[in-house]
Amino acid sequence: MSTADVSICANCGKEDASNICNKCQVTKYCNAVCKKVHKKKHKKECQEHVRLAAEKHNEELKIAAELHDIELFKQPLPKDCPICFLPLPLLLTGYKYQTCCGKRICSGCLHAPRYDNLGNEVDNQKCPFCRTPAPPYSDEEIVKRNKKRAKVDDPIAIHNLGMYYSGGLNGYPQDIDKALELWHRAGELGHAHAYYNIGIAYLNGNDGVEVDIKKAAYNWELAAMRGSVTARHNLGVREARAGNMDRSLKHLMIAVGAGDNDSLERIKWLYTNGRTTKEDYAKALQLFQTYLSEIKSPLRDKAAAFSEELYRYY
Length: 314
What we know:
Low-confidence stretches: 309-314
Radius of gyration: 29 Å
CATH class of the domain at 140-227: Mainly Alpha
Oligomer: single chain
């Protein structure tokens, strides 16, 4: 009797059988007595069902892992400055988040002269994107603007509020649970660095968070898939320590190509310690130079020179 018809007892042939074999979860019986009587006859078939189920499960896991890796090793395109349309630099000194309009503006456009429709130079203290006057430099005003942006689901502003709770900053009580809640929300809205922070919290066990390396790595993967090269660097280091050099180099090369100097230094370290090849290091150097050329502009160079000159006196 075929067990394909799952409504028929494999022993006596009665219909509406609902007592399933505990091992294969396929063959059905009308009751425990029939199951016991049919046990010897069913043994071989049961083993085959179990084997096929295991093979199917393993194949599904393999496909799921392959699909996951396709997404994991696909670096999103960098965000562009909304004014000059060049990729934003990776370093925080290369751009600034504008709490007035929620835009990230590169340093070149922030420091560039601004003109009206008649070509007259205008006030340089206004946001170069939305023309909102710069706020008085105070923590209260910055918090106020972040709260306002958070109400319209601005992920960066929500992330910033999470930072206030995490560190007990700007009058906020230190509350890691609230910080994690806000970071999860910011991550779901697309802010990669929020997931990176969640990973760090689980890595270090910050303020009562239980240390969980798997959760840390999981959140770094979420961050990397959304563009965080810092999280990708951490994944590359983690894979190298586990001996998975192919996966490590994939992560580190992607991070280098997105401008992460720490990943370039890590590949250099791997090369000097005989864990990767000269060709790999040369490729990393080339990727980094390509990144630098893509973000370079005369206005950004002027802004960088201005900042260096300013730091000499402060």
